[in-house]
Design brief:
Bound molecules: iron/sulfur cluster
Strand order of the largest sheet: 1-2
Mean pLDDT: 86
Number of domains: 2
Low-confidence stretches: none
Number of helices: 16
Distance between the termini: 8 Å
Structural class: mainly alpha
Oligomer: single chain
Helix content: 55-70%
Length: about 400
Amino acid sequence: MSEGMTVQPDLGFIKYLKNAGGDTLKKCYQCATCSVVCPLSGDNKPFPRKEMIWAQWGLKDKLVADPDVMLCHQCGDCTAYCPRGAKPGDVLGAIRAYAYTHYGFPQGLAKLCSEGKNLPILILIPTLIIGLFWWLSGGMHLPQGAIDFGLFFDSHKDHATIIGGLTQNVLIIDIIFVPAFAFAVFAAYRGVSAMWQAMAAQLPEKSAFRPSVVQFVTMFLLPAIKEILQHNRFNQCGANRDRVNGHLPLMFAFIALLAVTAYSMVRKDVVGMFVEGMHAPLALSDPFKILANVAGIALIVGIGILWVNRSKMEEESGATPTFYDWFLIGMIMAVGVTGMAAQITRLIEIPVLAYMFYFLHLVSVFMLFLYMPYTKFAHMVYRTFAMAFEKYRESPFAGKVSQ
Ligand code: SF4
Ligand code: SF4
């Protein structure tokens, strides 16, 4: 902070941090123990001590444009060692939660996703949308005969094709999920672009050169993704190594499930238009079905470890329970458990339960993707681009940041 700088605190922001898990920030007396223990903090980088004083001063605009805040992986080392119980890890988590709302588009949905009291509405929105399509497609009747989720939105037509070779079921699934997914991608793009501009505005020097798209991807984005996949920084955690044990299987489960979903869409939506019988469920022995089941188990195990770990952090290290943390854990657990329960009840042939779990599975998947840009799930994109920015600001395209 330069001498003579006028501090203009945002009191609303300080109040938000206090309510969102950062209520201890006033206890910080700038001893810098957290900067010593934080694996992200270098010799010339007083992180997160610097962010603690910015937060005390209510410097919202500096904090939401600070890549280091997004790079923190909430290991809790700083919170465990802080002699004042100021919980810097929680303060940073609260700043990130604020940033996702701050950059969120549209703002109304971003704000809705930021508070626990809105949970009933957040569940009701996908329930009503999916329920409406279920009602329109067949009056909410359960399909007769052998359990087949490919007939859920097609209970009277028995795999009859309606457009090209597409069944009504596949078409309705696409009508529900493709726009939701596209909307989430667009909203995340808007948010990340705003964050990047805010971070670039903080650079001390403005470069006359801009990287091309190819340079941006190869020099900054791909190296950041590679680092994330390897979990290098997580491995530097001291106090809380269980997080990497949960986060790693979870991340690979998501990648595998995305691959299976893409395969399934191509098989049913593209090939299915020309080849009869491609709409049937995958056989248990199909390699993609095996991959989906292994990924489903990895998802439940990974989120289970993170669930236990978060509870331990709250009990033993005094971390503050927040909607921001638990909403994501709850949504991912719901996706894993309902998906697995739908499969098991299908295999043991209990139609009512199988279709009920399938419906709940659709609701939870819809929630996970539609709300991705505003919940803790958003760290997937914000963190990736913050890491890319970290590489960008050290490159010839940008001046180095002074601390
Ligand atoms: S957060 Fe705690 S460890 Fe860090 S500077 Fe403040 S008092 Fe010291
Ligand atoms: S939670 Fe971990 S990564 Fe984040 S500031 Fe604290 S020590 Fe550093």
